[in-house]
Design a protein that fits this description.
Blueprint lengths: L8 E3 L4 E4 L4 E4 L2 H8 L2 H13 L1 E4 L2 E4 L4 E2 L6 H7 L1 H14 L1 E2 L1 H4 L6 E3 L4 E3 L3 H8 L2 H14 L2 E3 L5 E4 L4 E4 L2 H8 L2 H14 L4 E2 L1 H5 L5 E4 L4 E4 L2 H8 L2 H4 L4
Antiparallel strand pairs: 1-2, 2-3, 4-5, 5-6, 7-8, 8-9, 10-11, 11-12, 13-14, 14-15
Helix pairs in contact: 7-8, 9-11
Length: 245
């Protein structure tokens, strides 16, 4: 991230300059410019640019999400508010469909990528929507969700079994996704993840292996029955706590 004194400061008149990130005019005096560029709000706006897919080039701000240059009298914050719904949509695509646009928004790649299909393509919301509606993509999403959520195939292939909830779920993207957001399913994760937070205990094998009944403590190098009572007993035990001293 650039931090030069004049980064984002452009001429406005004989007596004033303009900060294109904050959308404000500043007296041309070096002291005034320095005071502004050292301010927390100015620095926050520069950090915000990467998250929002905005880049400065020769005094002009360009937004990759909207494929447009910001108007001269438009501040960074104003534009961020304007395109917030698009940013929310990209977040949802990442969470629900494993569409990663991070490198594209950071101007480190000309493409976005699908993590489950292992392909890259040109950025546009039409391209994203067309991709996520493909049957192959939906199949890949299902296969990615299952081991992350303790779900396993059964003989009939029409259903999957959720190990955490001990229930059967229709083997479709919609039903599997709905189940992963189900209150009871989420409660299992919330209870255990809160308990093992920063304890170096892994649930990965338990979730990915239908017949595995244990979590694994990397600190103590032992298996623990994967239920709240046993995990709580372990993480608060003297032998475990001594590993952190």
């Amino acid at each position: 991230m650039k931090t030069d004194l004049l980064y984002g400061i452009v001429a406005s008149s004989k007596t004033r300059v303009r900060c294109i990130f904050c959308g404000v005019h500043i007296p041309k005096a070096k002291k005034c410019i320095e005071q502004h560029t050292n301010g927390s709000k100015h620095k926050e706006n520069i950090s915000l640019m990467t998250q929002e897919g905005i880049k400065e080039d020769n005094g002009v701000l360009h937004c990759r999400i909207c494929s447009m240059e910001l108007m001269e009298n438009e501040s960074l914050i104003e534009h961020v508010d304007f395109h917030s719904s698009y940013v929310d949509a990209l977040f949802d695509y990442k969470e629900d469909d494993f569409i990663n646009s991070d490198l594209y928004l950071a101007y480190e790649s000309d493409y976005i990528s699908c993590e489950v299909c292992n392909i890259s393509f040109d950025f546009s919301f039409d391209n994203i929507q067309n991709h996520v509606e493909q049957v192959d993509h939906e199949t890949n999403v299902i296969e990615r969700l299952k081991p992350q959520n303790g779900m396993f195939r059964v003989d009939n292939d029409y259903e999957v079994w959720c190990k955490l909830c001990n229930t059967y779920v229709e083997n479709t993207v919609r039903e599997i996704r709905d189940h992963t957001y189900d209150e009871i399913h989420q409660l299992w994760f919330t209870d255990l993840l809160d308990l093992i937070d920063e304890q170096d205990v892994s649930l990965d094998d338990y979730l990915a292996n239908e017949h595995e009944m244990h979590a694994f403590c990397n600190k103590c190098q032992i298996q623990i029955p994967c239920n709240k009572a046993k995990l709580e007993e372990h993480v608060y035990s003297d032998s475990h706590l001594e590993q952190f001293s």
